[in-house]
Amino acid sequence: MIGIYSILPSLILLFLIAFVELAINKRRRIFNSLSVVNITFAVCYALTPMLLMVFRENIELALWMKKNPLTEKYYLIASIFSLIGYVFLVLSYLISRRVKMDSLSNFQWNKIRMDKVFILNNIFGLIGLSSLMILIIEAGGVLEYLQVGIIIRNADQAVLEYGFLTNIVTVLAYCAFLAYGLFLDSKSSRYKRINFVLFILYASTALLVLFNRAGRLSLILFFITFIIIRLLKTKKLYIKSLALIMITFYFFTVFGKRIFHYFVLDDFALPEVSLFESLQRILLDFSFPFFTLANAIKYSFFDGVPRLFIDFYIGIFNLIPNSLISKFGMDKLTTETELNTASFGGLSGIPVDFLSLGYYSFGLAGILITCIILGSSLAILEKIFANIDTNLAYIFYFRIIVFIALFIPYAGPTNLFKNNFMFIILGLCLMMLAYKKKQPIK
């Protein structure tokens, strides 16, 4: 029964996160990157473990979750490691924030040329639209494209000839965000109209892609991005905005799968779900990091030796289309998510979380390394976006925060690189436009 004592370190972690956010996290905005990481960390490694232990007799766990009983000591160890990792993350953030990095002040987001962003955005938009058109034609039509979402998501495994384009079309969501930012920031009414039309085009096609991928969290984040920008820009909390975010989150978390299945089952009827069932679904949706970390500790490393962060190299290699590497007699490398899923019996795709990735790589030392790197990265991000005042800059800033926050529950490098490949390239281009080296004073 020692596993139930994981409630104590989880409770300490929850109070520590609250203390850091309220007393230590000095921010210029209503929230910053550390705030979002705090929320994600609290949900995955503090609140969820506590609730799982408290209501363990009443919650119906999925079959793979029952592999290691909640009473085992490994859950207690997982909670202790989570607490230690968070302490190192915060210390790394605070130390890095005090380090002077003068070159980071060269990012002048408020002076970025809108015409260059407009051209850049539409180049990527054209690439995304062309890729989407090819996928729709190959699938046999728009409805067929939506119906075969699960197949197309695995299309790189020789299901579709152009399956690799599924990683390209994700850029349409970011094109929609940038078009929206350009619309808000444009001084000319003519450019406002143009950007508004482009925003509608990119947003509607991005929704096709999101429904095809059937990812509830991606759909939630797509909608709430437009609400969050207002909160960041005005630096004020609006009750209506927060309520809308909570309703969107609840609706898609509880009923999202049913909505996606409509295109396959042709039945849009939403099932009657009690409040307890709804809360149970939400809890279990965020429980896999805790189960994965405990399993990683119990069965240390997949093959008996540390992976030494090789999964990041595997993630880069797996970006190469299967149709190309097969010509050289090679195949895709086995990913950490596939190995993790196999360790639970191979019943469903079980992602590897941030702390588990560190543990699989180098044990407790791997967890500390990943936490230190993440903390320093957050401090650098805040320095890069220290002085921003345009909607465009706030949108890009928030989407980077989302990228980092999602890395905590979904840390598998292969999926991380595939799902965000175009965003990384687009982001680097934007940073090049914003970087203006200061001229030395003569």
Give a short synopsis of this structure.
The protein has helices spanning 7-24, 33-54, 73-98, 114-139, 142-147, 149-153, 171-185, 189-213, 216-234, 239-265, 275-285, 288-298, 310-317, 322-325, 336-343, 354-384, 391-407, 413-434. The protein is mainly alpha-helical and 442 residues long.
Structural commentary:
The chain has helices at 7-24, 33-54, 73-98, 114-139, 142-147, 149-153, 171-185, 189-213, 216-234, 239-265, 275-285, 288-298, 310-317, 322-325, 336-343, 354-384, 391-407, 413-434. The chain is mostly helical and 442 residues long. The protein is globular and about 65 Å long. Helix 2 (33-54) runs parallel beside helix 17 (391-407) and helix 3 (73-98) crosses helix 12 (288-298). Helix content is 68%, strand content 0%. It has a domain at 2-100 and 286-386. Residues 152-158 have low confidence and may be disordered. The chain is built from 18 helices and no strands. It starts with 6 loop residues before the first helix and ends in an 8-residue tail after the last helix.
Strands, count? 0
* Rounded radius of gyration (Å): 22 Å
Helical fraction equals: 55-70%
Spatial separation of the terminal alpha carbons: 72 Å
List low-confidence stretches. 152-158
Q: What is the mean predicted local confidence, pLDDT?
A: 86
Features:
single chain, 442 residues, mainly alpha, 0% strand
Topology:
Layout: H1 7-24, H2 33-54, H3 73-98, H4 114-139, H5 142-147, H6 149-153, H7 171-185, H8 189-213, H9 216-234, H10 239-265, H11 275-285, H12 288-298, H13 310-317, H14 322-325, H15 336-343, H16 354-384, H17 391-407, H18 413-434
